[in-house]
Structure formats: C-alpha cells, structure tokens
Structure to design on (151 residues):
C-alpha cells in the first residue's frame, strides 16, 4: 500500500496531511509547519558552521545586538525562505570570521542548511543562496578610543 502524502500551502504555512499507513503511528491527522519554523531551522544550522561570525546585514545585526542584550535572540535573522508545496528555497546572509576561507564557509553553510531543512522539516531543498555580507576581524568590536587620534 503506497503512502498518501498531500501537501498544500495556505497563507504562509505548509500543510502536510498524512494518512494512516502501515508502519506509521496508526493515528491519522494533519501536521502544519510554519515558514518561521523553517527559517529557525536554517538559522540554527547556519550558526553551527565554524567561521560564521553572525547572520544578517549591518542593520539586522545592530538590531540583533539589542535583542541579544535583552536575551531575545532572533534565530531567523539573516534568513529568508520561500516554502512551496513540497519544496523550499532559502537565502542566508552571513558574516565570515577572518581568516576563514570564505568559499569553504559558504559551501558548508549551504550544505548544512539544506541537510537540516530536509532532515527536520521533510521538504526538498531546491536551493540555498549564501550572501557573504561582511567579514569580521578580531578586534573590530574592541573599544575604538585606543585607536582614535583625537581625545
């Protein structure tokens, strides 16, 4: 007996209905996975890669620093997903730590994000675009008064 899968997209979420199939849990029902969940999975996966300093562009990172200060980290920062009926595409904006090889970090992010989405959400990942927005150099976050010529 073939497993019956039906997937529909409704108002920004993916609805996946599964029939009662042999080897399954034995209970029919419907599971709904919001786009935000897919974004969080992608964000967590991207942060796990060595050489990724932060996610998001300059403005998003500044707002993220404020969120971090009040212990409200946004795990979807720097992540944009498009979720279809059975497929998902993701755009990830990262800041790479110097001297990590940028192409290697981007490739690892792409592979890890695709694997995490497929494994945890169950959707086919058609593409993961990685945008390297900046490079972080240790000492950039230090107090700039020491390097200032004027006091």
């Amino acid at each position: 007996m073939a497993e019956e899968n039906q997937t529909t997209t409704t108002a920004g979420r993916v609805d996946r209905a599964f029939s009662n199939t042999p080897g399954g849990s034995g209970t029919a029902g419907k599971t709904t996975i919001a786009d935000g969940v897919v974004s969080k999975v992608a964000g967590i996966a991207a942060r796990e890669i060595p050489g990724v300093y932060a996610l998001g562009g300059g403005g998003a990172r500044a707002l993220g620093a404020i969120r971090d200060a009040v212990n409200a980290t946004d795990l979807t920062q720097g992540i944009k997903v498009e979720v279809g009926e059975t497929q998902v595409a993701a755009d990830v904006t990262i800041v790479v730590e110097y001297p990590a090889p940028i192409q290697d970090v981007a490739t690892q992010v792409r592979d890890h994000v695709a694997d995490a989405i497929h494994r945890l959400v169950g959707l086919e990942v058609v593409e993961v675009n990685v945008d390297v927005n900046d490079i972080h150099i240790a000492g950039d976050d230090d107090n700039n008064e020491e390097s200032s010529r004027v006091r």
